[in-house]
Structures are given as C-alpha cells and as structure tokens.
Design a protein that fits this description.
It is found in: Nucleus. InterPro entries: MS5/SDI1. Keywords: Coiled coil, Nucleus, Repeat, TPR repeat. Its main location: nucleus. The chain has 154 residues and is mostly helical. It has one domain: Serine Threonine Protein Phosphatase 5, Tetratricopeptide repeat, CATH 1.25.40. It has 8 helices and no strands.
Length: 154
C-alpha cells in the first residue's frame, strides 16, 4: 500500500472548481461607478446617526447627545442635558446620561443630587434604572447606608 510503486501517482492537491470559490454559480455583474445609485442626503444623514449612535432630530436631548458623543465637550453637554430636563425632553435618558457625564468629570456628588431631585419627573418604569445608577455612585463613594436605602421601600 505504501510501497514505492512508480505507476501510482500521488493524490496531491487540486484546484477546486470556480463555483466553490465564491459560493455563487453566477456572480453579480460589475457596474461602473457612473451608473451606481447615489445615496440621498437624507439617507446619508441617517447613516451618520447610526454610525455615531446619536439619535436623529433637533430636540434639546439630541443636541446634548451630539455634543457629548461627537463634539466631545462634556461640560457643554451637561448644560444641554439640563436644558433637555427642564424642557421635558426624554427626561429619563437625559438625567441618566447627564449623571454619567458628571461621573466622568468627577462630579459624582452633584450627579447623585440631580438624580434625587429630578427622578420624580421620570416614568415609573425608569425608577429601577435610576436606582441602579445611584447604587453605582454610592458603591464608588463607599456610602453603604445610602446604597441600602435605594432598595428599601419608601
């Protein structure tokens, strides 16, 4: 079987058929750049928001998120989040996002007070999420008593 018989050719490697390479028997035809569809400005704007993970629109909350994520100006973003909260625009999200930005600027105590002061403006469904944010702040500050108060019924 493994002898040195010169009449038997080794199996070796062979090139697979072209249909194996692409997985397609008929690849799509090539289209010149001049004939391709152009992306409309509105679609391009939508792609921008998707790529940067910024909500679309022109509300106070959207402007704050743009300043936070695109302009990368946390101080200005905080003031715009305050404006969104005062305007009643996505208060739940604005309050949580503002607290996160404040934490990045080592203003955790101020973020805790903001959440405590304005959580009554938020929907009932978001109260647990706000508690989680507060617990994170309390853990970092070593405030165990306050952390436990978040889970006690009032």
């Amino acid at each position: 079987m493994w002898g040195r018989d010169k009449s038997i050719q080794p199996a070796g490697f062979s090139t697979p058929p072209t249909t194996w390479k692409s997985g397609l028997a008929n690849p799509p035809p090539m289209v010149p750049m001049s004939e391709r569809k152009r992306i409309s400005p509105a679609a391009r704007c939508d792609l921008f928001h998707v790529a940067h993970k910024v909500p679309a629109g022109d509300s106070p909350y959207v402007r704050a998120k743009q300043v936070q994520l695109i302009d990368k100006n946390p101080s200005k973003a905080i003031s715009l989040f305050w404006a969104a909260i005062n305007a009643g625009d996505r208060v739940d999200s604005a309050l949580k996002d503002m607290a996160v930005v404040m934490k990045q600027l080592d203003r955790a105590e101020e973020a805790i007070e903001a959440i405590r002061s304005f959580r009554h403006l938020c929907a009932f469904e978001s109260q647990e999420s706000l508690n989680n944010v507060l617990v994170e702040f309390f853990k970092r500050a070593g405030r165990i008593e306050d952390e436990l108060k978040c889970f006690s019924p009032n």
